[in-house]
Amino acid sequence: MRVLALRRLEVPVVPDASTARRWATEELADPVYHRGKSLLSRFLDWVLSLFDGASVPMLGLSPGVVAALVVALALVVVAVAFWIAGPVRLARRAGGSVVVLGNDTRTATDLRAAADASAARGDWSAAVLDRFRAIVRSLEERTLLDEWPGRTAHEAAEAGAVRLPSHTSELRRAGRTFDEVCYGKVAAGPDTDAWLRALDGALAATRPVAPVGRGTVDA
Fold first, then answer.
1. CA–CA distance, 157 with 154 (Å, rounded to integer)
2. How far is it, in rounded angstroms, from Cα 17 to Cα 19?
3. Which among 202, 146, 214 is positioned nearest to 169, based on CA atoms?
4. Which keywords does UniProt give here (predicted)?
5. CA 149 distance to own-chain centroid
C-alpha cells in the first residue's frame, strides 16, 4: 500500500458533497478500475489517490486537525471494508457446498434409521439429509472414501463417482439435493426421500471399480 505523505504541509482538499460525488464518479469511470479489481480495491485506490498529488493547501488547519481528518478517513475505509467484505463472505459461503458429516459419528445403519424415523413423522427435510449422510457414511465404511469430516456434498458425490462411475449422475444429483435442502432452496418430500433410499440400495449392490494402480476390489 502506498504511503500517505504530507508534502510541505500540503493536505488533501476536503470537498463538499456535490464535489465529492463528482470526483468519485469521474475517478471510478476510469477503465483502469475495471480490469479485474474488486470493488473494495478500487475504492481504496481512489481514497489513496486523494492524498497523492493534492496541490491545494487546506488553509487554517493545524497539523492536529489534519491528523484527525486522516484518522477519520481511515475509519471510514475500515467501515466500508466490513460493509463490502461481510456480504461477500456470506455469498461465497451460501454459494458453496455443505459439509455432509462434520462431527457426526453415526454409522450408516444409524443414519438410515434416523432417516426412517424422520420420514415416519413427515419431516422430509431431515429424512433426506440423513439419507444422503447414510450414503456417504456407507461409502466410507466400504473404504471407497477416506474418512474426512470436512467433506462437502459436492466433494462426496465426485469422489464416490470415481469408484462407482455407473452412478455418477445420480450421486451428483443427490449431492445437489443435499445442498438445496440445507439452504432451503427446495422443499424435500416423500418422492425425494424414496429416490435417495433407492439410490442407497443401488450403490450398496454395485461393485466398485479399482482405484488407479490397483486391481479389482470386492467392496
1. 5
2. 6
3. 202
4. Membrane, Transmembrane, Transmembrane helix
5. 18
